[in-house]
Amino acid sequence: MTQLDVGQVLEGRYRIDTPIARGGMSTVYRCVDLRLGRSVAAKVMDERFSGDPVFRNRFRREARSMAMLSDPCLVNVYDTSADGGHVFLIMELITGGTLRELLAERGPMPPHAATSVMRSVLTGLSVAHTAGMVHRDIKPDNILINSDGQVKLADFGLVRAAAASPATGDTIIGTASYLSPEQVENTGIGPASDVYSAGVVLFELLTGRTPFTGENDTTRAYARLTEDVPPPSAWINGVPNLFDELVATATAREPADRFADAGEFLEALEDVATELRLAAFRVPAPTNSAAHRATGFIDTPTDMFTSAIEKPGGPDASVPTTPPGAGTDTTQLGDGDPAAGETRVLQAVDGGTGTDDTALLPPQEAPAQVWPTPPTEPEHEAAHHDPHPGYRAEPHFRPPVTSGSGLGLIIWLTVVAVVTVAIAVGAWWYGSGRYGEVPQVLGMDPATATATVTEAGFEPVSRSVYDDDVPFDRVVGTDPPGSRRVPRGEPVSVLVSLGSPTVPALPTDRDPGRFRAALSQRTLDWVDGDSVYSDDVPAGGVARTDPPSGKTVQVGGSVTVHLSKGPAPVEVPKVSGMSGDEARTALERAGFTVSGTDERFDPEVDAGDAVATTPAAGTTLARGSDVTLIVSNALTVPDVVGLSEYDALNELSDAGLAAGEITRTDLVGATAHAVMDVSPKPGDRVDPANPEVNLLVAEKVNVPFLIGKRADEARRLLADAGLTHTGLDGTSDGARVVTQSPAGNRDIDPGTTVKVRTVG
Asked: Recorded GO terms, molecular function (predicted)?
């Protein structure tokens, strides 16, 4: 990892004073902001990340998100850069140290002290969870304690940015002892993952150790997949059962069994504190911290203002110049050195060249009761004093001017001085004096940003813009941009985020010009798509878009626009063989108007059923076109075979047919003059233009067999055959036939008389 030199200036603004700590991902330096005259902390990322465009892009977005988080329990992010030779964050200067260092000095905490620490940690974490962010690396090294006892959470988003970088490969990003099971398995990381890590931190505060042991980071990380975090009371006496339950819920192996987020964890912690009547407690800053040791790098105090408020007692009072505590970076669990990701605390210049592992710094030997019993009122520790008290430069005296030159010389010198001052003031005003620096307002709410711009001497003008990274109704920046020097009193636009743009709704008249203007207003580009048919949109109008209206897209994204070609042409459907009603319905459903019906003979289609259409099936027409339905007018030959000639002729007439040629034959029929055959055949369809049906009529009949039959039955059979009889008239119906002539089953001419004798 490349180390920056003391005195080196980042982006012409942040002067490096001293390094504080170094980790696997970054080095933290104490710096002076030369523009605003305050001490800040700079976290400079390792070159293996800074050279990766994927990391730079993710880092830029995450840094902007971090800058928008504002809470006393979070370390403020003031500035960031991911475009130059170095990728870095400029953060609030923390003048105390880390929770890791405090644990190393004092050992395990009693419940009231642990509650005070976790209250601040969970408060800050809940702010991030509410904003949709996940920390991913909760551990004592990322929990800082200011000299005023304020506990703050640091390093949001950096792990996520590192995880997106190819430089990390397929390794697990995080710190082994505090990883959640889903981080180890690289599945479904959300707020519940931070809850698990916070539960491990609470366990460590109460016991002075982490819950899992092993030969290396990988062993410790994978242990949580098969083992539960033990109750703190199993390792140290005096831990109430309610704290055991808190830790158990927070560190459940399944995310669904934990507190849903930091806010829910915080509510449970407050309930426990109320139940146990735990007193408020002011968390002390560590005394043997990297922040304190790093002050040895500063040989002389800066001549700029520091971030600390001047102490009572006038300008001669000392000003704190202690550097910030710095959290350790994340560990990659891979095949490399397992210690590669641990933070290394840098010693002072006169302290040798060795390094201390923050995570492994042994606690100082001290009696068990290094934590005071909770008072009825919060403790107030004495404020830290600057090891480099302020100073005033020795005044430079000039010998007085004698009066020997007389009053005229004095007047002349006075005039020259006044003119010189006037010229200097005028030159200053027309040169740089009338210019001011546009303030940085990223992430502020509109009211605060407007007030900030006004205080800087400019005329604020609110303007809404679309932005993918800044949430709705938060400030994206200014125009001119922050840090730009422009004449005071000039208008400065405060750019308020509308969030990511959505594809606008289509105009009611589908006018392309209006829609193009709507796209441009939302920063979106028009891309010509293929024209499409539309039954609802006139030709030339906007038919549809891809993505569709209402879909969220990125700023400057493209929208493919498809113009209408009007209604799509429709093919005339095939309706042959359908009934007339079915065919009409099919045509109308296809979008056509049935303008009329024609008839045509078709030997394959029954009368009244559809034969075809005009235009023919398969023809492409505009929707709504007229189509003529053609139906069959065929006549169907009835089955008259076996009927008498007379009856057959009547049936044919009823069917709209006429008798054609009648051929008589010696064939024997069942009745007199029975029809033996027809042509066309029964069931055939006949053209109405030629409706004749030819008949074949039998001229012989078969004498029925009457012997043994009743007289009434014999009379009927003879009548059906067209024969006359003797011997049956006057006999009773029940008489039986005993003889007949001609005999039964003989072929004779119709009308022949059959002689019958009966008895009874």
From this structure: ATP binding; protein serine/threonine kinase activity
Q: Taking the complete model, does pTM exceed 0.85, yes or no?
A: no
Q: Which residue has the tokens 């109008």?
A: 541
What is the H or E stretch that residue 696 is in?
strand 692-702
* pLDDT (0 to 100) of residue 186: 84
Task: Quick: pLDDT tens for 380-419.
Answer: 333 333 333 332 333 333 333 444 445 666 676 776 666 6
| Domain CATH number, residue 25 | 1.10.510.10
C-alpha 406/C-alpha 387 separation (Å) is 53
Is 729 exposed, middle or buried, given 0-12, 13-18 or 19+ CB atoms closer than 10 A?
A: exposed
Q: Which range marks the domain in which residue 463 is found?
A: 435-497
Range with lowest mean pLDDT among 21-35, 375-389, 538-552: 375-389
Q: Which of 546, 563, 580 is the last residue of a domain?
A: 563
Q: Are residues 577 and 559 in the same domain?
A: no
491, 538 contact by CB (below 8 A): no
Catalytic residues, by residue number, are: 137
Q: Taking all residues of the chain, what is their mean pLDDT, rounded to a whole number? A: 80
Clarify whether residues 313 and 284 are in a common domain.
yes
What are the pLDDT digits (tens) for 246-259? 999 999 999 999 99
Helix, coil or strand: residue 747: strand
Which residue, among 215, 239, 213, has the nearest Cα to 227 in the 3D structure?
213
Domain count, the chain: 5
Helices 262-276 and 111-130 pack at an angle, to 10 degrees, of 150
Residues 446 and 552 in one domain: no
Token pair, residue 234, equals 């199993």
